[in-house]
Amino acid sequence: MNSTSFTRYYFHVTESHIEKYLSKQALVNQISMIALDSKDYPLSNGSSIPKIFFQDLENRFSIPVSNGMESKAATFCDYYGIEWTSDCDSSETPSGGGGTVTKKGLEVLLLAVQRALSKEL
């Protein structure tokens, strides 16, 4: 395998599978890096995402304001045509989960942010 083939293969594999290896904090950091000037958004001990993270995304992209973190993320994704499914937040879990955005939800949100950024070009 020559270096060009290796590079293409390497980037194909890492780009298509990277999200499954990232933690929630790493996903928040990645979104912040590409869209929010790398502002720090530390997750709580229970891995809850700070509300200001979603508010900053709403403000950055002029998205209609929503209540609740899962609603803010779902509205953002919907605005950019990315499907928000029931596994993106914990609102339908037996405990009710308080509407916490899941790792899957952050992966979907990352796609929406990437689409939002591409529309700015």
Describe the structure.
The chain has 121 residues and is mostly helical. It has one domain. The protein has five helices and no strands. Helix 3 packs parallel to helix 4 and helix 4 crosses helix 5. The N terminus is likely disordered.
SSE layout:
Elements: H1 3-17, H2 24-35, H3 51-61, H4 69-79, H5 103-120
Helix pairs in contact: 2-5, 3-4, 4-5
Hey, roughly how much beta strand do the residues contain? Answer: under 5%
Q: Kindly provide the radius of gyration, computed on alpha-carbon positions and rounded to a whole number of angstroms.
A: 15 Å
Q: Total strand count, please?
A: 0
Mean pLDDT: 84
**Number of individual domains:** 1
What is the overall silhouette? globular
Q: Count up the helices.
A: 5
Low-confidence segments, given as residue ranges, are: 1-16
**Oligomeric state:** single chain
Report the order of strands and helices.
HHHHH
Indicate the percent of residues in helices.
55-70%
Structural class: mainly alpha
How far apart are the termini? 35 Å
Question: Largest sheet at a glance?
Answer: none
